[in-house]
Here is the input.
Amino acid sequence: MKSFKLITDPEAFQLMADETRRRIVYLLRAKERTVSQIAEELGLTPQAIYHHIRKLKEADMVEVAREERVDHFIETYYRATAEMFHLSHGKGGSSKYFEEETREALDAMSKLGLKVEMDPGLVTKVVDLVKGMKDPGHENPWVEKVNELEGTDFLAKQALIEYVNLATMSDADFEKFVKCYRELRKALHSAVVEPRLLAKKG
Here is the structure.
């Protein structure tokens, strides 16, 4: 299994817009599983899971890890093809996928004790601002080289990509990045009810 995989295929964006497929990929990143095991964990039928697995295999996000003979049957174990997938905001990007991903992330902030006022335009604004920032997965030519390095920890590689991106970014691109980041913080700060709640608790 690779540590990192860049996804730019429009079909993959559509696949990952489905919550069940995202949950399957999440499970298969942690441990090899059979269709039956996945179905049991997600509370779905094996037939439904197999349908999703087939599509994820075609998109090269899931692969066969191994096969085992159990009595007269062959059990197939699947795994994700990478520990982390980066779906680039590049030309092949799906706005629908990123809007759903952003909405899910904003909703999840409530689990941290931060209530977000979901203004109709908030999701769109956040997506536009994130796209406006330099996307290292799509534009940074160092990403592939960094992820091919041997003897470097996965988390260290993520930090290295960020450092290289900042070190090689032009002044104009950096100013654009900072401006978008500042606007993103402003939008999120305004949407959060009692933004200092966590600070008070600490």
Summary: Confidence is low (pLDDT under 50) at residues 89-93. The longest strand covers residues 62-70.
